[in-house]
């Protein structure tokens, strides 16, 4: 931490925590330093921000495995807001940190029964199931969540990851197609959908992968992964039993993709000139290593074998 905590006033510490909250920065270690050295004994001066600071400290304490501090802050908030679902969520997070997963799931179930439109406890439930390695249950829970919150792009990404972990490539592709509806101009989504289709195999999937790789390259010409994928797809198509017109088109596209890859990976003239001196020194070092290897292996011509 670049700040001198010992010389900070309580108002400076409060303003710093407020700035981190506004910027959505966790900075858990720094938050705990400010709490221990400045704010823990000045809670009464925080005014309306006191509860926000306590919530911020709870998250930081859980991140830093400061369980006692988190319990203390949760108990303060629970005493002031005994029926709050928000505080109940923090209690479930505390139980999760203690690895009391069943109790944490019970707390989350209570929140969901009281407020079915609350997305946060449903996400935490999926996270706990995933932590326990119960991917099938996590997928079922996340599918139920996506039926209610269909526009949650992070949910579709997570569901795709879970399906990929289980080898359900067709369902993972469906998740990426849903994401394309929300963000059709993202080259990364097109690229990932193409990766999945390529992994599934078969000419139909390869052609679909080629289409999405082309779209990814069109949206971002510097996407090397998409260029390599496009080259591989065209290689499969050109060696397939499709009509000769499609094979010739694939060959031309493969040549173009390789030219683009080489143009982006080969060093420029300036880089080549700058690397001549270092290259000579490396070459001299390699010759010394080759001589040492030849002596070690009884005069074997290592240079010819390497070439």
UniProtKB/TrEMBL annotation:
Keywords carried by this UniProt record: Coiled coil, Endoplasmic reticulum, Membrane, Repeat, TPR repeat
UniProt superkingdom: Eukaryota
Subcellular location: Endoplasmic reticulum membrane
InterPro entries per record: EMC2-like (IPR039856), TPR-like_helical_dom_sf (IPR011990), TPR_EMC2 (IPR055217)
Pfam family, one: TPR_EMC2
Entry annotated with the keyword GTP-binding: no
Keyword Endoplasmic reticulum assigned: yes
Coiled coil residues, start to end: 87-118
Signal peptide (UniProt feature, chain positions): none
Domain EMC2 TPR-like, chain residue ranges per copy: 90-196
GO CC list: EMC complex
Principal location: endoplasmic reticulum
Membrane topology, record value: Peripheral membrane protein
Family, as annotated: Belongs to the EMC2 family.
Self-association state and partner proteins as the record states: Component of the ER membrane protein complex (EMC).
Reported function: Part of the endoplasmic reticulum membrane protein complex (EMC) that enables the energy-independent insertion into endoplasmic reticulum membranes of newly synthesized membrane proteins.
Protein name (database record): ER membrane protein complex subunit 2
Organism: Anopheles gambiae
